[in-house]
Amino acid sequence: MKCLTCFLGGSSPNGFRTHFDRMTADTGFHTYIIKGGPGTGKSSLMKRLAEAFPDDDKEIYCCSSDPSSLDALIFTKRKVILVDGTPPHVFEPEYPGAVQQILDLGVYWNINRLKNSKDAIIAANSAYLQQHARCRRYITALAAVISDTCQIGTSALNERKLDGFTERLSKKLLSKKEHSHEGKLEFRQLSALTPEGYITNIPEDYSIYLLNDSFYAGSEKFLRKFSDAAVRKGYDVSVSICTVYGNDSFEHMLIPELKTAFFTADPLNELSVIAKQPVNFRRFYDKNIISAKKLRIRFNNSAAKDLREEAVLSLKNAKAEHDVLESFYTPAVDFDGINRLCCSMISEIKSISD
Fold first, then answer.
1. Which residues, listed in sequence order, are joined to residue 285 by a DSSP beta bridge?
2. Long-range Cβ contacts of 168-172 (<8 Å, 24+ apart)
3. Is the peptide bond prior to 88 cis by the omega test (within 30 degrees of 0)?
4. CA distance readout (Å), 91 to 103, 113, 120, 136
5. 80 Cβ contact list (under 8 Å, min separation 6)
6. Measured by CB atoms within 10 angstroms of the end CB, which terminus of the chain is less buried, N or C?
């Protein structure tokens, strides 16, 4: 059994960011889009389905707002996707019934009970949205100071030296396949800012190259060039972006066929992991340029740490408000009905040949 754990997406200056819509649009999969309010059993349903198929290859997608909850589940060989389709990651069927279908947990609500708590629900939801708006403001500032350090790194980067390293490593790791088509570049969100801090999911069965890069620019450029080389030689590549930047900056990369992973360790994620080979990216930067900007870099790193902590606090407060919302919805749900739905789903998925 192969099981990859990642996030559905993550917080960015523009709100929640995800590439999962590429998965739900894949007509080779059948996608169940789960609708329902907070605390109505969306995550629990996916957890029970994952447990019902312990020997299946699967991908488990955690919620960055609450890493103990699931946002999505993929049975890779059965070609089945289940995903939470409620805000902030709204998904709708493009080919209703044929490729995607809605599982509406709202049919199991006691509407009268929810109406009786209307004012409290509205207040809690407003407080929840305010905390996420606060988080976005801090992330916007965080992205700005990181971008400033990255610009310094870009100006100091010895691209010729980095290109030489990239080429040598690609020759060492990437054997050109005979009669092979180009590989695919896919996205899997391995890191995210959460109420518990900046979390990175590390696959257990991969050889890890840890890219230690204090200035961001070199590791991102390396990952782009190495992923291009891998795809050209026929390897599928999974890339994880840093959503905090608000763009598609590469942060980590998996090459599943080789069981090889590249993870960036930088001042934002402060990643520490046992690696097959750590790579110190300082050797790719001009020491004089970096030295001339050291006070600015030091200020940026200090500011980034404070801003990250405030963003995490905002997410923690948002989760507390979400827990309040769940306290109204959970008692209003007919979980016997959801249990029957779960049993029906297990039978339905079992009928799909793997």
1. 157
2. 169/226, 170/226, 170/229, 170/230
3. yes
4. 12, 27, 27, 22
5. 29, 30, 31, 32, 74, 349, 352
6. N
Contact 32, 101 (CB under 8 A): yes
Structure tokens at 342: 């779960």
Q: Phi/psi class of residue 81: alpha, beta or left (left: φ > 0; alpha: ψ in -120 to 50)?
A: beta
Q: Tell me the CB-side half-sphere exposure of residue 17, using CA atoms within 13 A.
A: 24
At residue 353, the pLDDT reads: 63
Residue whose C-alpha is closest to residue 268's, from 186, 200, 188, 195: 200
Residues in contact with 98: Cβ distance below 8 Å, sequence separation at least 6, in sequence order: none
pLDDT tens digits along 190-217: 999 999 999 999 998 899 999 999 999 9
Identify the three-state secondary structure at position 314.
helix
DSSP type of residue 335: H
The sign of the CA dihedral 265, 217, 190, 86 is positive
| pLDDT score recorded for residue 273 | 87
User: Which of the residues in the chain have pLDDT under 70?
Assistant: 1, 179, 353-354
Number of residues in the chain = 354
| Encoded tokens for 53 | 């198929």
Compute how many other C-beta atoms are within 10 angstroms of the C-beta atom of residue 26: 13
Edge-to-edge strands of the sheet including 58-63? Answer: 3-7, 58-63, 66-75, 80-84, 30-35, 100-104
